[in-house]
What does this fold into?
Amino acid sequence: MAWRGNEKVNAINPSILTLILLLPLAGAGLVMLLPDRGKLPAWITLFISLITFGLTLHLPAYFALGQHGFQFEINKPWIDSPAIFYHVGVDGLSLWLVVLVGLLAPVGVLASWNAIKERRKIYYALFLVQQTAMFGVFISLDLMLYYGFWELSLVPMAILIAMYGRKDGPKAAIKFFLFTFIPSAPLLVAILWLYARTGSFNFSDLQVLIASGSLPATPLAWVALAFLLAFAVKVPVFPLHGWLADTFSEAPVALAMVVAGKLGLYSMLRFHVGLFPDQARAIAPLLIALAVIGILYGACLALVQRDFWRLLAFAALSHLSLITLGIYGLTFTGWNGAIYQILNHETIDASLFVLLGVLEIRYATSQIASYGGLANKIPRTATLFVITSLAMIGLPMLSSFVGEFLILSSTFTGVSRGLAIAATLGVILSAAYMLWLVQRIFYGPQGALAASRPPDDLRIGESAVLWPLAVLMLVMGLAPSLWMRTIENRVSAIHIHQEGQR
Amino acid sequence: MNPTLGHLLQQEIPLTWYLLLSAVLFCLGVLGFLIKRNLITVFMSIELMLNAVNLSFVTFAHQWHEVKGQIFVFFVMMVAAAEAAVGLAIIIAVFRARATLAVDRIDLMKL
Amino acid sequence: MTGSLHLWLIPLLPFAGFLINGLLGRRLPKALVTAVALLASLGSFGVVLINVFSMLGSIHMPASLPVVETFGTWINTGALHIDFSFVLDQLSIIMLLVVTGVGFLIHIYSVGYMAHEEGYWRFFAYMNLFMFFMTVLVLAGNALLMFVGWEGVGLASYLLIGFYFQRTSAADAGKKAFIVNRIGDFGFLIGLFLLLANFGTLTFSEISAKLAANPAWTGGVLTAIALCLLLGAAGKSAQLPLYVWLPDAMEGPTPVSALIHAATMVTAGVYMIARTHTLFDRSPFALGVVAIVGAATALFAATIGLVQNDIKRVLAYSTISQLGYMFLGCGVAAYSAAIFHLMTHAFFKALLFLAAGSVIHAMGGEQDLRKMGGLRNKIPITFWTMTAAVLAIAGFFPFAGFFSKDAILYEAFQHGGSGKVLWFVGVVTALLTSFYMFRLWYLAFTGESRSHDVRPHESPWSMLGPLSLLALLSVVGGWIGIDRFGSFLAPVLGEVGNSATAPGGKQLDIMLSIIAVAVALIGWFIADRLYRQKPDSPARIAAALPTGYSVLVHKYYVDEIYAMTIVRPLLFMSKYFLEWVVDVGLLGGAAWMLAGSATLSGAILQRWQSGNLRSYAAWLAVGAAALLVFVFVPWSTVLANFGIHLGMAGQ
It folds into this structure.
């Protein structure tokens, strides 16, 4: 692996995270400086995102297994008062999420390739800013820094939804903004309260301080709740999902595929369960209940949607709730499964978004009823859609199965049998709505819509995104240990921390 | 010369009178600003207020034998001059765009 | 035995075939597609045969089995450790021989049958995919790997049923098969969780070892596990109440019906129960349920089979019914007999479907029995092979079905008092089976042709070859006898009651056999009366019993009942309650309130920002005045006059 001695590697290790973080931002600057001519911004963004993805691959390649704590860590004072540090680092929990963000960036660019036809410059610049923000969320270990990136991840998103969304884009953007911004205000207050009490924004220090029990319990419970609320909206957890369907159906494809899920779920694990283990344990029953409701509720609503974006939104609610269940089951296996399932879910969702985006660009509608009989006209699209759908419904050997099995089995053995059975029912329903969707779009006799256009199968750029993702789904289903080893590295650390609390 | 008048002239005019004048001028400026419709008149009302303030500056400078107040007057005059230049330019631009200078009708907060 | 058996070759050869044909098949010439598909399944069969023969040659064969080969770790996290491990023992040998052998024959048959289809390459890719998953299912050394094959064959079945996906009915049937199977898989999954929770492992040998170490452990959670697994088995093997997908699955091409929905995949449930029989053995209750489900399904499906007019649907219901026999066998702990019937059934049912395919081929795609007739002389080879199969399934001596059905009925009869009832149900089913099979036979082959616009022609040799081989197997397949078959499987499935050694067993066995054959003869006789001698009588009987006939024709309205009680209420609740009331009404309403309050406060504050210069100035002036008042009014004095003392409360 170390191709030319260790010196070069050692030289790059300390700065790799900064490089990953700043490269998209620099790319955004470059896009803004150069003229908005043709596809130039798209090419630059593609180039930048590919390099960034390459850089993120450095992390798993040189990640030291069996070493607890954070790696590739940088901790430099940034602002004296208040004491904010530029403190970044990754562990097994965030490692693959950083790679995931890196992977989905070129996917997003290629998904936007034909979809975004005007004002490309601003679009791609904001897209890159969004990348930096997401990287920042996953690697920040200073709470203030983290909060900054957290907010930053919302702003370009809202603007992009408003400017480049479908016809009701601005409305959806406002909804998204209201839902996600309001809870992040208490989050800021909570972070500031912690700082006022401890004089530190440092994640590890705060973890130790909170564990020592020196902070008053009642305010701490409120602080933990404020953290949780902000994350739960972003996931989203069951009653807080109001923004999801509108955002999915209005946002540009490349943004919709990253808007839900990983940021909130990661933050739950790191900053709620990881920072406030006792409070998390106290509130876990509520979240488990909400997660199970969310699984079934999302699945039931997905069954009756007429618009495929909305169907995807409720399917996502169902699957994300399953991950939430894995997190708040507070078991070792459940966490492993949850983290792995975040990776699986995001890749599958990205692939589905690209595919449905392909359909929408070709046929200019997202109404499922308009489709039908496309399998013969665009067989490659159909094939990939079926593979991705099968991965989504947890067919063994494809990616989701392992994560779902770990989450469900750990819930069954460690939390509650009844709830695990209910959650498993949701997995059954997922087959119903996904296969029904496949059938209504691709099978049956050719509808008027299918006949109205000449066959226009996947283009080279689309294939270049989708096939690797499909192969990835297979590999992730067959060889989960490739990922699991590093994931376990961190999860065992949380676990030890939690065990110490008991 | 009327001795009374000469006496009066020789006498220092009390501070209060200057300040009263200044206050009256300022209030006239405020009133003009609030009541007048024409943008130019409103603009002149602003000048009036500035000068009212200038008057009180000078008065106090004279009273306390302090030069700072007079320096401030120069600042204010400079600002007023700059403001007049920019303001009049804006007024002309507004007039060109809307063919009116009635403040009530220029309420879109954009040209 | 030394050296590896290379068990991985058995599934991976078909998988390679799937990859080649699936990815490149569209561009490959037809001959190459055929070659790849056939070689893949032949290779798989060959590896199995080589292993079997090398073991037959070895003296220590019983000692050398089972062979476990592990090819790396799949999941390893916390306490959970799942390997890719394959087990070759007597049970999996039998299953592998059936799956790969019959599978290969059906592949050959398909070359002729599918020759003119558009998605030729796609068909063979899916068939190889099925072979891959089925062999994984059979070889799996742990329950999770078995589940991989289990779901995988469901996928292959979904793809193949929906092969003619442009027909809405085919796409619907594929979807229905997958979802109903998923309901069964739900039970399987819960069973896996229960196994994990109670045994901490999913490896079959470890589970058996733990059970063996605790001989007193019965009932309770073991019953729960067994019932969950039974739900899975019932889904896959089309037993009550989850059999509804199998008749619809006949929408697929006929070779698919033969391979997946008759010979191999649908028997996976029986195989799974046999594989986990140590669990079932500890729960008499669960075994009882298995037996009752099996007997009820056998009878129930047979009654529906009486009145079906689609040749493939008759066979589909007969498959369900025969699977019921196998479950009945499992339920009376006669696993060897069930597996024996599984094997013979694979021969004659595959033959029945392939012969039916040949008939359909001859009739130019016509599947309705009422439009056939008089085919006997036009397609003689198909006729004779079909006859062998009909005699086998009806249970005539010395055809294969006689021996295996007899073994199950004998075991059932021996199984205590309730066993007599089960035996009786089995005999009645045998009567019905004989009747509807001969009905099919008469309708298709005898009398006058009832459709005049088709010119029946015999099928090509690629189809007749497999037919002849399977016909041979349908005749001789049972001659090995349950005693030898059972003792071969005994190391895995435990000893079975041997009729030769039981007191009075031989006489009883012979007596029961005579009853069974007599019953089959009665069935034939009735069919002969109704469909050959008095062809108008069935219509009269139907007219005389309108309610009964219509219930049977509508398959007891089970599909309709499911739609009314489960599907529609679920969709209705989702649409009107969950979406409209909860999502749009309650949650959307809450969001509206939130947004509304923001808008309202905005609307109020907006009045201030009128854009009117003078109003700004006025507010400024008022503000300045207020500030002045605030600063210069001696508040403490003023308030003191009113008797209020700031900062000196109470004084």
Observations:
- The domain at 3-98 of chain B is CATH 1.10.287.3510 (Helix Hairpins).
- Chain B has a mean pLDDT of 86.
- The interface with chain C takes residues 30, 33-34, 42, 103-104, 106-109 of chain B (CB under 8 Å).
